Amino acid sequence: LHCDSCGKTGHVSKVCITTLSKNRVDSKQVGDLSCSDSDSDHAYGVSYLEPVIFSTNANLVDLYEVNTYSGKYMISISINGRPQKMEVDSGARFSIMPEDRFLALNLGIDLLPSNISFRAFSNDVVACKGKAEVNVSYKNRSILGEMYIVPAGHDALIGRDWIRGLNLELKQIDADMSLQISDRAETDILSLSTEDIIKEFPSIFEEKVGCIPNLHVSLTLRDNAKPIFTRERDVPYALRDRVNKELDSLEKEGIITPIATSDWGSPLVVIPKPDSGIRLCVDYKCGVNDRLVSDNFPIRRIDDVLSSLRDSKFFCKIDLYKAYLHVPVDENSSAIQTISTHRGTYRMNRLSFGIRTAPSAFNRIMSQILQGVPKCEQYFDDVICHGATMEECTRNLRLCLQRLSQYDLHVNRKKCSFFQTRIEYLGHIVEHNKIKKSPDKIRAVEEMPRPENADDVRRFMGMLTYYSRFIPDYSTLSYPLRRLLYKGQRFQWTSQCEAAFLKLKSEMCNDRVLVPYNPSLPIILTSDASPVGIAAVLSHIIEGNERPIAYVSRSLSSSETNYSQLDREALAIVFAVTRFYNYLYGRSFVLVTDNEPLTRIFGHNRALPKMTSARLLRYASFLAGFDYSVKFKKGKDNENVDCLSRAPISTSQKSFDIKINEEVHLIHSESLLQISNAEITAETIARETRSDPELQVILQDLMSHCDDSPFTVSDGLLFRQDRVVIPRSLRPAILSQLHATHIGIMRMKQLARRYIYWEGVDRDIEHLVKSCEECALLRKNPTKVVVHPWDEPKTNWERVHIDYAGPFENHHFLICVDAKTKWPEIRISREAPTSSSTISLLEDIFAFHGYPSIIVSDNATIFTSGEFQKFCSNRGISQKLIAPGHPATNGQAERYVQTFKHRMKASAHDGGTLAERVRKIVFHYRATPLGNGVSPAEAYLNRKMRLKLDAIFPKQKEPPHPTDNSVRSLQVGERIQAKVFQNNCELWQFGIVRRRLGTRHYLVELDSGRILKRHINQLNSTKVPSAPPVSRDSPRNSGQQSVTFDVPALPRQDPVSEQCQPPRTSNNQTGVPSTGTTTLTTPEQGSSIRRSDRSRRPPLYLKDYVH
Questions:
Q1: Are 839 and 872 a contacting pair, CB within 8 Å?
Q2: Which residues, listed in sequence order, are joined to residue 265 by a DSSP beta bridge?
Q3: Of 9, 237, 410, 516, which residue is most buried, by most CB within 10 angstroms?
Q4: What is the spatial distance between Cα 854 and Cα 877, in angstroms, rounded to a whole number?
Q5: Which backbone phi and psi does 381 adopt, to 5 degrees?
Q6: Where is average pLDDT lowest: 22-36, 76-90, 884-898, 980-994?
Q7: Is 687 helix (H, G, I), strand (E, B) or coil?
């Protein structure tokens, strides 16, 4: 923000204090009017109270305390979801609100302490009551901001902190604000045309679904309510592309979200529209509505709504576009509204039409949104703005549209009307201070034609009798008509009959019979249909009696007269609900019909039958948005409506039920269009249907019976749901048309299921295609069956699978795999394999594992030769060969061949010979766990194979050896004689025990310094003391001692010394007295050790050998 007057930032010239202070001429100047943002003493300037007097005239204008329409920058924002109107003040650093308005918001939050005070332009300091952190929203922009609370009597201001956060622009606010002026300047306002309104609010008139911010609706389940999932309905093939496109659009807009699993699911119902579009509905009446707790938001009386229109001359009606879809729901409610479709399940993220509590919830939301908008009334989704003058109506309309824009609500331009002086609203005709009942409420009785025979009189008298207790002197008034019903009386319509007829119709329409609508009383809607018309009566139950509120009827069109009796009765219900929509929507009512099957089809606690006709399906989806129960009444007790249906009035108005029928007719027309050609047309099919005996039986049943049926009649054609029923004479031509391009059985069936039906159509298609020679020659290979698994062997190496891999790197590799454990063996061959070489390699493998019971191989000549078969036969091996060209049967070997080749290629740069690489691959494969978590080694050897990786684990400590008293033992440090071996002679030398190794082995040190490992059998205990210590210069100690656990290498001796010598008596060497053996002379310590100089290496012919 930039001020053009003072050049400073943070405000505009309109509120520049510096500029205004220069213009003052009154001596009563107050305080320092600097617009500085000084933070001293925590006091901030706010626009408040100070009157400023202009010198040009004597009129006083409160610059900061202006009246409602003096040009303030006023906007409506949402604070924690509550609408609030505040002034935008760029001169205020912080946003403030008086305490009384803050308490009225009832936000339920506590104030936080604040040490900030505010200074008014009068230099008075205003103490701050505290601050609150709130969510602030404006035009889909939201921030978390601080709001300071000041004492009552101050203005609510939006300061620069919120201005920047909400990205507010004063120019845009100026454009969006309604024109608010004082009463003196009101005559200067120019009224706007409809086009001006649309140009001013273009976003509102966009036909798209918005989303109300900071609000979620929650659906409440009854106690112990369990989820229920109803599978999807079949979508007509002719509509699938459009349905998929609509689902994609809803998903893109975030209205629905695909999910993989859900405990809830309600089927999608697809309804075609006359404009080639579709309407997607959801059948919630079976699985959801009965499990929801009612939302009992108080509904305004229609009389109160109409009374609020008093003194107004101009009226504007606003129709919201897809109203419910603007309302988001919480996550749990989204799950409850889950939709089951042919493409899977979707969560509904917005409030869905068909949810029983949706009307009441939406009514509450709209009441909150439009609260405070002058002369704006709302009855569910019917919004009306009005005013005594054109200017007032325009102003109120702008305020209403601003509020709708703030909450991202959009309207349907085609259904809106603006600045009307006469308008129909809630079933009444509204003009300036004139509210009249709509003549349609009694037109069905007033325009009822006079009876033409005794039956007509009898029906009329039946309706009068139903309400006779409310008609004074009924017997006298009705006598001329009752006399026509006497037995033997000739029917003659006289002037007395005409007078009585007119008088009784007048009585039926006056207030003695009719009662005003009262939403607190129970509502009953009774309907009926006859071959010529449909009718309904809306009634209240007052003191146990039905009192009519309104009557309606209309005659059937030529096409409707061909409907089945079931369809006509259903049409009467839909006609009645649409005509009394304003009285029924959002309320619970009882629907009375004399057709018992409709109580099952339209029952709220039952799913629609899968084979319900397309017309009944459309009717049911429409009724799903109402809260009703269905009651059956016998025809003889339904006389009050029966008369109206048999004496209907004609109407030129296109009612909503007729539009519904057009939607159903549209899909029927699409089916006909697809199968029509020069020879087969709708007229041809209708003509052949009339002459088909089988179809005539179905038609007669439809016209005379009221049973539920998947068939329906339209323009003389029979339909099963949305498919045309083809008479027998036209079936060959239809089949020929389906088979024109030889598309095959499956596609022919799919095409047929979109458009045509007769019993056994699938069977006829299969017979036609299988009899076609061209189709037989072009048939694809049969569908592959699932590979049959081999039976698992009972023991290891019972069945092996063999195959060759290669040539690879100029070698061939014989692969043999155990079927049970997957233990592999590989042998390498330089030459091309033959039966003989293969047998040789197998013999080498079998030398380790033994012969298997079964060998499985392919049909290569190597394995089918007589030599190989003889090899198997002689060793009792059963050979099994796979089918030629079907390697999957030997999948065990084939898979390992692929694995082996892949790993050989991967190890090409690892170095080492071919045999080393193969050995490494086999080794690791045997030790690697397979899909079952067990390695081939564990399965075959019943133990794990040790790898290099095992070296990373610490060695386990050996458990202490148990003491064996039967074995003699020696103690560490004990003197012993140890047996040593020199030149193939045994010698006993003295030493000492250094360490005990288990129970039978010891580590001993000889007196010569050598350390040896000896068994207890090679040791004797002795008391001979050790020899005197040898000097340090002795050769014995010239080198370091070494420990060996093997037989020590002896020093080289002269030929003479290598012979055994007689025993010598000395202190150091002495014979063993217990054994009597002689000792040998000790070799000289300085002699060198003789070792072989020959280089050891493996023979070359074993170079490629692999274990």
A1: no
A2: 229
A3: 410
A4: 5
A5: -100, 15
A6: 22-36
A7: helix
In 284-408, where do the E strands start and end? 314-319, 339-341, 344-348, 376-379, 382-387
- Contact criterion met (CB below 8 Å) for 714 and 750: no
φ, ψ of residue 91 in degrees (nearest 5): -85, -10
Q: Which of 581, 571, 559 is nearest to 530 (CA)?
A: 571
Q: Is the pLDDT of residue 1043 over 70?
A: no
Query: pTM value?
Result: 0.46
Number of H helices, E strands in the chain: 32, 43
* Of 389 and 437, the one with more pLDDT: 389
Q: Residue holding tokens 């938001």? A: 297
- Tokens (6 digits) for 634: 């016998």
pLDDT (tens digit per residue) in 839-864: 999 999 999 999 999 998 888 888 88
What's the pLDDT score for residue 509?
A: 80
Beta-ladder partners of 259: 345
Structure tokens at 790: 């081999």
Residues paired with 162 in a beta bridge: none
Q: Is the pLDDT of residue 583 over 50?
A: yes
Q: Output the CA torsion 953→957→958→960 (10° steps).
A: -160
Residue 253 has φ and ψ, to the nearest 5°, of -80, -5
Coil vs helix vs strand at 148 = strand
Identify the DSSP state of 973. Answer: T
Q: Which of 2-11, 123-132, 763-772 has the lowest mean pLDDT?
A: 2-11
The one-letter amino acid at 820 = K
At residue 485, the pLDDT reads 85
Polymer length in residues for the chain: 1107
In this structure, what token pair is assigned to residue 993? 């025990």
- How far apart CA 731 and CA 423 sit, in angstroms, is 55
Q: Which residues contact 613 (CB under 8 A, 6 or more apart)?
A: 567, 709, 710, 711, 712, 719, 720, 721
The structure tokens listed for 217 are 């609706």
The closest alpha carbon to 904, from 922, 918, 916, belongs to: 918
Q: Which residues lie closer than 8 Å to 114 by C-beta, 6 or more apart? A: 128, 130, 131, 148
- Domains of the chain and any CATH numbers: 74-182 (2.40.70.10), 194-432 (3.10.10.10), 437-637 (3.10.20.370), 682-777 (1.10.340.70), 799-951 (3.30.420.10), 974-1021 (2.30.30)
Separation CA 337–CA 4 (nearest Å): 56
Angle at 461 between CA 455 and CA 463, to 5 degrees: 110
What percent of the chain has pLDDT above 90? 16
Question: What secondary structure letter does DSSP report for 285?
Answer: T
E-state strands within 338-388:
339-341, 344-348, 376-379, 382-387
Q: What are phi and psi of 530, to 5 degrees?
A: -130, 175
Structure tokens at 79: 């604070």
What pLDDT is stored for residue 351 in this prediction? 92
Cis peptide before 807 (omega within 30 of 0): yes
- Looking at residue 55, its pLDDT comes to 32
DSSP annotation of 802: E
Give the separation between CA 860 and CA 446, rounded to whole angstroms. 98
Going 173 to 174 to 177 to 183, the CA torsion angle's sign is positive
Q: Which of 464, 462, 463, 488 is nearest to 476 (CA)?
A: 464
3-state secondary structure of 221: strand
Half-sphere exposure of 47 (CA within 13 A, CB side): 28
Stretch (H or E) spanning 34: none
| Spatial contact of 165 and 138, defined as CB atoms under 8 Å apart | no
CA distance 431 to 306: 11
Q: Determine how many CB atoms are found less than 10 A away from the CB of residue 332.
A: 11
Helix ranges (H only) for 231-339 are 237-252, 302-307, 331-336
Between CA 770 and CA 774, with CA 773 as vertex, the angle to 5 degrees is: 105
- Decide if 1074 contacts 1094 (C-beta within 8 A): no
Determine the average pLDDT of the residues in 101-119.
82
